[in-house]
Amino acid sequence: MTSGKLTGAAVAEHNSKDSCWVIVHGKAYDVTEFLPEHPGGSKIILKYAGKDATEEFDPIHPPDTLDKYLDRSKHLGEVDMATVEQEEKAVDPEETNRLERIKRMPPLAACYNLMDFEAVARQVMKKTAWAYYSSGADDELTMRENHAAFHKIWFRPRVLVDVEHVDLTTTMLGTKCSIPFYVTATALGKLGHPEGEVVLTKAAKEHNVIQMIPTLASCSFDEIVDAKQGDQVQWLQLYVNKDREITRKIIEHAEKRGCKGLFITVDAPQLGRREKDMRSKFSDAGSDVQSGDGSVDRSQGAARAISSFIDPGLSWKDIPWFLSITKMPIILKGVQCVEDVLRAVEAGVHGVVLSNHGGRQLETARSGIEVLAEVMPALRERGWDKRIEVFVDGGVRRATDIIKALCLGAKGVGIGRPFLFAMSSYGLDGVNRAMQLLKDEMEMNMRLIGAQRVEDLNPSLLDIKALLGGHSGVIPSDTLGLGAYDPLEAPRFNEKPKL
Amino acid sequence: MTSGKLTGAAVAEHNSKDSCWVIVHGKAYDVTEFLPEHPGGSKIILKYAGKDATEEFDPIHPPDTLDKYLDRSKHLGEVDMATVEQEEKAVDPEETNRLERIKRMPPLAACYNLMDFEAVARQVMKKTAWAYYSSGADDELTMRENHAAFHKIWFRPRVLVDVEHVDLTTTMLGTKCSIPFYVTATALGKLGHPEGEVVLTKAAKEHNVIQMIPTLASCSFDEIVDAKQGDQVQWLQLYVNKDREITRKIIEHAEKRGCKGLFITVDAPQLGRREKDMRSKFSDAGSDVQSGDGSVDRSQGAARAISSFIDPGLSWKDIPWFLSITKMPIILKGVQCVEDVLRAVEAGVHGVVLSNHGGRQLETARSGIEVLAEVMPALRERGWDKRIEVFVDGGVRRATDIIKALCLGAKGVGIGRPFLFAMSSYGLDGVNRAMQLLKDEMEMNMRLIGAQRVEDLNPSLLDIKALLGGHSGVIPSDTLGLGAYDPLEAPRFNEKPKL
Amino acid sequence: MTSGKLTGAAVAEHNSKDSCWVIVHGKAYDVTEFLPEHPGGSKIILKYAGKDATEEFDPIHPPDTLDKYLDRSKHLGEVDMATVEQEEKAVDPEETNRLERIKRMPPLAACYNLMDFEAVARQVMKKTAWAYYSSGADDELTMRENHAAFHKIWFRPRVLVDVEHVDLTTTMLGTKCSIPFYVTATALGKLGHPEGEVVLTKAAKEHNVIQMIPTLASCSFDEIVDAKQGDQVQWLQLYVNKDREITRKIIEHAEKRGCKGLFITVDAPQLGRREKDMRSKFSDAGSDVQSGDGSVDRSQGAARAISSFIDPGLSWKDIPWFLSITKMPIILKGVQCVEDVLRAVEAGVHGVVLSNHGGRQLETARSGIEVLAEVMPALRERGWDKRIEVFVDGGVRRATDIIKALCLGAKGVGIGRPFLFAMSSYGLDGVNRAMQLLKDEMEMNMRLIGAQRVEDLNPSLLDIKALLGGHSGVIPSDTLGLGAYDPLEAPRFNEKPKL
Amino acid sequence: MTSGKLTGAAVAEHNSKDSCWVIVHGKAYDVTEFLPEHPGGSKIILKYAGKDATEEFDPIHPPDTLDKYLDRSKHLGEVDMATVEQEEKAVDPEETNRLERIKRMPPLAACYNLMDFEAVARQVMKKTAWAYYSSGADDELTMRENHAAFHKIWFRPRVLVDVEHVDLTTTMLGTKCSIPFYVTATALGKLGHPEGEVVLTKAAKEHNVIQMIPTLASCSFDEIVDAKQGDQVQWLQLYVNKDREITRKIIEHAEKRGCKGLFITVDAPQLGRREKDMRSKFSDAGSDVQSGDGSVDRSQGAARAISSFIDPGLSWKDIPWFLSITKMPIILKGVQCVEDVLRAVEAGVHGVVLSNHGGRQLETARSGIEVLAEVMPALRERGWDKRIEVFVDGGVRRATDIIKALCLGAKGVGIGRPFLFAMSSYGLDGVNRAMQLLKDEMEMNMRLIGAQRVEDLNPSLLDIKALLGGHSGVIPSDTLGLGAYDPLEAPRFNEKPKL
C-alpha cells in the first residue's frame, strides 16, 4: 500500500467467490456477499474478481449504484491504479475492423433521414451495444412490422390550400412542444455514448421537445434532471418494483424534481427474449460457457440482467394507489388493444401509449399505429376521446409516420432507437441533426398534404384499408418454378468497347 | 469356417439374385426368396449381396424385423467378422465436408430457438437422413405454409394482469402434462441418432410431456415402451395394415403395454412423393440407376420403401371396429376440413388431429392451424366442442405458436421435426434443451399476453383476419422494371481511412 | 455441273436480291420473286442467298412448304452438295458452352416433375429455340401468373374414403382418355427436336391422351396424322386465314383425316410481342442489324414471322359458317371472360378453352383457372353447364393443378410447353416420362384428396378465396429500412476445427 | 486585355464573395451583389468564382436567364477564352467507367420497351443528371407504386371482335392526337441532352402527340415554341410565382404564342426532398462540405435550387383570377382525391391531372391510376363526367397502362421520365423509337383486348378488385425460418463431362 492507497496486487488476491474484490473508477469494493444477489448473476462479476471492472460496469449501472446498494463497510477505498496490472486483451478482428470503419465514417451531413443513422451505427457501434439496442423479440417480425405498418397507410392529400405558414407546434399533457414527438425512454444510454442519456436531454432542449427519463438509464435520474435547462419538460418512465416503497420514493422524488408525467410501463411484466442480444453476449463470454456443465446458459443478454426487480404482479388493482400518491398525470405505456384502453379511461388515468415496446417483448403483437386505428373510433363513439391523451410509439422514422398517427387521432408519438443510433454514431450533433431532419420533413409534408396546423390533421386525409385488412404471412415461394424461370434482361452492353 | 462361424468369403459367394446372402449385425441371412417381397424393392438388397448390410439396414428396420419376417431356416448363424473384407468406400467430398463441419459445430448453448437446431442439423446430418426428415410434398409450399400460417395470427394481449405465477400445465386425453405439447410420431429415428426414438422417450420423461410412438420407428415398439419410466405416458400412432389381424395385434399389444391413446393416421392412404428425398436416394444409388433400361426409376426415397403395407381402403366404415377392439381413446390424425371433424364426432371417436402430415402428403393442403380456425366455431355452434379433443400439428416452432393454437381452441399441439433435428445434432441434451426453450418461451409469453393459466387463453386474444383471408399466390415480380430501378443507398463510408 | 446436278459455285453466284437462290435439303430454289412475299421478311432469306439454308429453314417450315408456295418453275433441281463450300462458322462461346453442358446432362431419371424438364431445357436448348418456346408477352407477368394462380387454390381434402382403386379416366368431346389432360397445340416443334410434333403424337398414343395438332407445326399436318396409330384421337388447332377458302380446305381435309375436334384460336388476331424472343433474334442477326439505317428493326422474332396470314377480322359473325362446313365439334380456344362464354353457348359451339395463350399474347390477361372460377357458377346458374365442355390451359405443371381445374368444373386441361421442354431435352423418352409423372402424381393426389373418380371432384374440395380476391401488384420494398436492418443469424460454426 | 476582351487572369482575381465574377459562354458577369439572391444558394456560385461556370450553368438555366435577372451593368463583356486557365479535373473513376460504358452502348434497336431506355440511361448518364431524373420522394415507395399499381389491374378481354382496322386517335382539350398520351412537363432537359426540351418537341411533332412545356425547362419557353412545326400543339405547365404579375405575363405570353392548355401545378407548394438527388449533389460538392461548421448542409439537390419562387400560398381563391386572364382551358395538375376533383368541377376549370408528381413530392401518396378508379364513378354518379377532362400521369410504361387508364375513364395519360431516358441515351432517335414502340404495343393490345377505337374502352374490360383493396406493406420476412429452410433443387448436371 502506497500513500494510503490499495495496491493492485492486494486487490488481485481476492479473485474468487470466497473473497471477491473488484475495482470501479479507481476504488476497490468487496462484493463477496453481494455475489448471489447480483441481478445479472455472479458469473459476470467473477470474471472481474481481483481486477478493474470499470469498463464493463459503467454502461449498465448508474453512478450512484454502489452507494445505493453496497454497504459502506464494503467500500475499501482508493487503489493506486499505477500498480494495477494492465490486462492484455486478445486482439478481436471484428473490433479491429470496427475501429477501422470509424476512421472512414460518413460525414454527418451525409445522413438524410433517420434510417441513415441506423445504417451507420450498425457499422461503428460495439457489437454488444448494437445487439442490445437493435434487437427485438423472437424472429423480430414485430419490430420490423412496426415501421412497415406505416406503409399500409397512404395519403389522400388536399391541394390548393394556403400553406405558406405551417405550424408544427402542439400540446402534450399540457406542455407546448415544437413538434408532436417526444424522446421516449430507452435503457442503457452509455452503451452508445460515454455521456449517456444527458446527450438526449440537451438535444431535447435544443429542439423544444419532451424527454421521457428511463428507469433503466445509465445515468442516474438526478444527473438527467440536472442536465435540464430553463423550463424544459421531462417525463418519467417507470418500471414498478416489487417493493412498492422503492417505487413510491422514486415517484415522489420525480415529482419533486419537476417531472410532468408518469409513464407506467405495463407491457413488460418480464423483459423479452432478444436472441440477437443473447447471442452477442454468448460469444462475448467465450470459452468459459462452453466448459460448463452442459446446462442451459444463464447469460441472457443485457435485458434480462437489469430487470429482475420488475413486478410481474402489477395489475389494475394497483392503479388507484398510483393515482393517490402523485399529482403527475399518469399514463399507461404499452397498452395493446381497445378493451384495455377503455378500461384505462374507466380507471381514471390520463393517457395511454399504444406500444409493443419497440417489438422487444411479445412477438407478433400488433403495431401501435394499427391498434390506434382500432382505438380511436371506439373512443369517439363513446365521446371519450377527450378524456385521455393517446400516444403511439414504435417504428416512427419519417415525418409522414408522425402525420399519419396524428391524422388517426394520436396526441403525439414517441421516438427511441433512431436517436440512440444518431447519438451512438455522431453524439449530440447527430441527435440534433436527426431532430432537425424530422422538422424539415414535417414542415414539407404538412404543406404537401394541405394542412396548416396539427389540428387540421384528420382521418379523411388517409386511406387505411390495408391497415384494417390483417397480417398476411410470408407466401412460400415457388422454388422450383422460379428457379426454372429465365428472367427478362435489359439490353446488353457490348463486352468490348467499339474501336 | 472358423470356430463354427461362417467366413466372409463363404458369404461373398452368394452375391446374386440367384443366391443372395447378407450380413446384419455379425449374422448371415439367406434372403434369396425374400427378394421379391421386400417392400423397398430387391435392388437395394442386391447392392449388399454377399456383404455386410448393417449400416444400411439399421435405420430403416426395427431390430426385431428379421425375427418377425424371415423364416428361422434362413438365419444362417454368426459370421467371423474378421474375415469379412472391408469395402473401400470411395471418398465422397460432400461427406468429407460434413465430417469436417461436425468438428466445428456450434456449442449447444448457442441454440436459442427451435429453428437453430434445424440450421445446425442441415449442416451435420447425413445427406440422405436430412433429405428424409426435411423434405415435403411437391414444391414444399405446404410444409413452409405450416409455419408461415402462424405469422398470419397476431396477438391482442391484455396488460395489468397479475402474472407473477404462471401455470403451463394442462390435460390431454386425461393425462396431466407440464406444457401443452406432445412429441408427435415421426419415422426412422435412427437416421438421425444411433439410439433412435428412445432418445425422445427419455426427454419426454424429463420434461413430463407425452410421446406418440410411431408405427415406422427404427426402434421396435417394445424397445420404446421399455424405455419409459415411472408413470410416463405414451400414445400409439397407427398406420392401418391391409391385414386387419396384424393391426388388431398391434393395438391389443399397445393397450397391454400401457398406451393411453390410439392415433389412427387418416391422411396417408399412400405416402407422399417427396422429391428432395427421392433426389437424395437417386444420387446415392449412383451409376447403377443410369445403366438401367431408361424406364422410370423405382427407388422413390425412404418414404415409399417403408409404407407399402398401408391400407388405402381404410374408410369411415372401419371406425366401429376400432372402437370395438380397444378401450384406448381413438383419435383420427390428419383430418383437414370441418365436414370431416363433424363426421368424426358423429362416429364417436375421442379426438382429431388437424394436420397435413407436416406438409409431406398433399401439396397445397391447408395448415392445421387454419383448419382449426374453421373447425372450432362450427363445434361451438353445435355445442360439440367438449365432445372431442382437438389437436393440431405442423409448423409449431415457437411458444407463441402453441399459445395461438390454444387460444383458437386446441387442446394441445404436436411437435415432430424440431426434436428430430435437435436429437440428430446434439442427442438427448439437444432434445432436452429444445423442450426447455419452449417452456422458457411459453412462461414469458403467457405473462406478456396476460394469461395465468392455459384456461385463460381464448380467441379474443388474437387477430386472425389474415388467416381467414385465403392464400395469395406469389406475385410475379416485375423483372424489367425492378431491374431498371436504382435502389436507394445508405451513406457511403469513405474508401480510405482519414489520416 | 456434274451428273446433271448444280454445283455449289453456280448457286453461289445468285447471292443478291436481284437474283437469289437458296439450297434446301440438297435442292436449289430461285426465290428472287418470292422475297417481298416472305412472311418473315426478305432479310432472313438474303442472309442465305447463294447458300445452304436447310438448318434455318427446317424448324420454321413444314416439309411441304416449297411445294405449296413456290411455283414449280422455281425449283431448280438437285445440287451436288460435295461442291458446296462449307461455311466456317464463327465459334460462339455460348454455343460451345451449351454443347459442353449437353455432355453433362442429368439422366432422365433425375427429372421428378415437369419443372425439372424446363430447368434442363434452359441449359441444353439452342438459344433461339429456348427463346421462342419460353417467352411470353411484355413483362411475362401473365405467363408466370398462370402457374402462380394455382397456388392461390388450396385443398379441403376428405379422409377415410376408400381409395384403393382410383380411376383417372374421363371423356372429352366424346373420346375416352386415360387422364384428363391433352397435349395442346404449340408451334415449331422442330426447334426443339429434329422429328418435331410426331414425337408428341407417339407419346400421346403411349399414354392414351389426345393430341391437338397445331396450325404452325414444323411437321406437315399429314405427317402428324400419319404418325397416329390405331384408334388414337387428334384434334386440330386452327388459325383462321384471311382467305377463307384455304381455311375451308384445311378443315375439310382435317375432318377427312379423322380429326375429332376443331379448336379455333380466338385470342390471337395478331401474334404477341415476346421480347425475349425478339432479343434472341436480334443478337442472332449480329452486326448486320447494327450497320443498318438506324430505323426500327423489323425482325421481331419467330412468332411474328410465321403468323402474317392470320385474319384479325375474324368475328362472331363467322361462327355459323364454321358450323355449316364441318361435323367436327367446334371449340373456341382463348376465351377470357364469362360474357364471351355465354355468347359462345348462344352461338351453338361445343366448347371453349379458357386460356390466355400461355401468357404469350395480352399482358395482364387473367389466367384460365381464374376465369374458370368466374365462368362455371354463371353456367350452372343458367343450367347451361352441360351445353358446352369447358377446358383450361396455361400454367399446368402438377397433377394438383389438373385436379383443381376439374374440381372447379373443367372437363380437361391442356398442357403445352412442359412436353416441349421434355422433348427438347430427352426426346420421346422425356415426353413419356413427363406424362407418366403426371399420372403417378394424379393417382396419389386423388387418394390424398379422397376421390375415387374424376366425377368425385367438386368445388367443396377447394378453398378459392384468394383466387377471387384480385391481383396484388408487387409491393415496393423498403430499400433503406431493409438495408439498415441486421438480419438474425443461425448459430455460427467455429471457423477452425477443434483439435 | 487583348482585342477588347477580358483576360482569364483579370477574371480570376474576382474569386471571393467580396468580388465574384464568373464566365458563362465566353462572357464575364459580376454576380457579387446577386450572391445572396441566388435561389440555389451562394455556395455553388462561389465554387466557380473567377472561373468558367458554363458547364454547371447550362442545364439549370435557360439561355435568357442572365439577360432577365442580371442588370446590364453587371454584364462585363467577352473574355478571351484562350487565356482562361484550363482547370485540371481530378480523374473520377466513376466518370471514367461511364465514358467507357458509353462506348459499349447497346444499339438503339435493342431497346424493345420503355424500361430498356431507363436501364441504358442508368449506365450512360452523368451521375448527377441521373440522380435528378430518377429520384423520388423519401423512400421512393410512391414512385415505384406508380407503375406497380397498373399491375393490380388485369384485363377481361373480348374475343371475336373484328379488329382488322384499329384506330388509336383521340382528342384532348379539342386537339386530335394520334394516340392518347402526351409528353408531360419535366424539368432540366439539358441535364440529359445538350439540346434540351426541343428534342421532345421534334419527336412530338413526328408522332403527332402534344407536348407540355415545363416552367423549369433548360431551354427558354420561346426556344421550345420556336421549335414547333406546322399545326403542332403545345400546352404550358405552370408553377405559380409569388409575384402574380410575373405569372400573368407568362400566361399571356404563352397564349399569344399559341399554347392550347394551361396546366397549373397544384401538388408542389414546396418541391419534395429527393434524397438520391441530394446525396448525388453532396458527393459532388466534395471536401468543402466536410470542412464546414458541422451544421446541416444546405445543398439539397437540383430540385430545391430551382424552385424557390413557387408560391406555397396558392389556393382555391386564386382560380377565378386565372380563369379571368386567359382563354386557354385551365387544368389542375396534381389533384389526388375525389373531394378535390369535385371542387375543381365546381370551380369551373376544364380538367384535372390525377398525379402525385411522379412520386417526387409526398411519399405514400396514392398513384394517379388508383385515384382515377375512385374519381370516375363519383363523377358519373353526378353526371359530371363530361364537364371536365381527366388525365393521369405517373408510372405509364406500357401501352397496356394507357389502355387501362382509358378503360377507367381517363381522356389521356402523361408520360415524362421514359422520354427523358430515351433522349439522354439515344437523343431524338431514342425518343422517336420510344413513341413508336408505344404505338406498336397499343395497336396490338387494342386488337388483343377486342377494341377497335378508343371509345370502345370501358370499365367492363378490367378487373380492378386489387386496386380497390388498399396498400399492403411489406411483410417482414421470417429470417431464421427461411434461413434454415433447404430449398428444392433442379436436377444437377454432372460436374465433369462423360468420356
Automatic annotation (TrEMBL), chains A, B, C, D:
One of its GO terms (biological process) is lactate metabolic process. It catalyses: (S)-lactate + 2 Fe(III)-[cytochrome c] = 2 Fe(II)-[cytochrome c] + pyruvate + 2 H(+). It comes from Penicillium cinerascens. Residues 3-80 form the Cytochrome b5 heme-binding domain. Its EC number is 1.1.2.3. One of its GO terms (molecular function) is L-lactate dehydrogenase (cytochrome) activity. PANTHER family: L-LACTATE DEHYDROGENASE (CYTOCHROME) (PTHR10578:SF148), S -2-HYDROXY-ACID OXIDASE-RELATED (PTHR10578). Homotetramer. Residues 106-467 form the FMN hydroxy acid dehydrogenase domain. This is L-lactate dehydrogenase (cytochrome).
